[in-house]
Design brief:
Radius of gyration: 16 Å
Largest sheet: 2 strands, antiparallel
Oligomer: single chain
Shape: elongated
Mean pLDDT: 82
Helix content: 55-70%
Number of strands: 2
Amino acid sequence: MEKQFFEMPLGDKIALIFILAYSALTFFFVNSPIKLFGVSIFGWLIGWLMFLAPIVHLVCMRFDKNS
């Protein structure tokens, strides 16, 4: 039987798991009344997700390329 998809590298798997776990954690704070500098904690966590997701993926790709 022929495979229909390419094999996912280990670095991509690790990055995907990290991003999904962080996203799930973030959405627990949707209705939180906590604010920091006038912005809700949910807003801060989503902002950090947009900042961290590409960095985590680049780091995982770099480690995967070295091995």
